[in-house]
Amino acid sequence: MTLSAVVSTASTSLQPLMRLRAAAIITRPGQVLLHRAEGDAFWALPGGGIEAGESAGEALVREMQEELGLAVVPGALACVVENFFVYAGMAYHETGLYLQVHPQPASLLDRSPGPYEGVEGGRRLEFAWFELSALAGLDLRPPFLREALARGHEGVLHIVYRDPQPLAAASESTA
Questions:
Q1: Which residues pair with 122 in a beta bridge?
Q2: I need a surface site. Which of 5, 39, 64, 161 has the fewest CB within 10 A?
Q3: What's residue 12's pLDDT?
C-alpha cells in the first residue's frame, strides 16, 4: 500500500537550490536516532547528499561512516519526500529518499546509550535516541516526521512538504 500526503503553503519567489538527500531511519524499540549540527536548534534524521553514481543506500553507508564511524546496512525505502524549505537564508527544493537502516550488530549504538558525537566537514554533530512518544514536543525537521515516525506505517509514503515559514522570517531566524 502506498500512502501519500501533501502539506502545502505558499512558495517563496526565490529560485531554490535542488538537492538529492538520503535519510536513515534507525530505530530500536520505542526510539529513533536523530542528529543535529552544531548551532542548529532542530533535530533531523541522519543522512546527507547522494553523490553522482551513488544509490541512496550507498550514500547512507558512506554518510554514517563519515559522520559517526558507524557501519550500517541499508534496508527498505520508507518514504519519498519532496521538501521545500529555507535554511540559513537559502531556499531549497530537496528530494529525500528515507530508508530503514540497520547498524551492524555490536556497533556503537548497541554498546552505548548515547548521545554520540560526530562530525560533518568541520562541524560537530550530535546524535541521540528519542522516544517516539516524545517527538510531538521536539523541533524536528521536516515537521511531518513527528507524526510519521511516531505512528509508523506500512508501504512507502510520498510526502510533499512546503515550509510555512516566510522567507523574511527564515532569514532573520538564521542570522
A1: none
A2: 39
A3: 46
**pTM for this prediction:** 0.82
From the list 59, 33, 54, the residue with the least C-alpha distance to 125 is 33
Residue 11 has pLDDT above 90, yes or no: no
**CA atoms of 1 and 154, how far apart (whole Å):** 7
The whole-number pLDDT of residue 158 equals: 84
Distance between CA 24 and CA 44 in Å, rounded? 10
In terms of C-beta distances under 8 Å and separation of at least 24 residues, what long-range contacts does 112-118 make, across chains too? 116/68, 118/35, 118/67, 118/68, 118/69
Which triple of cell numbers denotes residue 61?
A: 553507508
62, 38, 49: which is closest to 127 by C-alpha? 38
- What pairs with residue 90 in β-bridges? 87
For residues 168 and 152, give the distance between their C-alpha atoms in angstroms, rounded to a whole number.
Answer: 34
3-state class (DSSP) for residue 151:
helix
pLDDT confidence bin for 59, thresholds 50/70/90: very high
Q: Which CA distances in Å does 75 have to 24, 79, 97, 103, 106?
A: 9, 12, 12, 10, 18
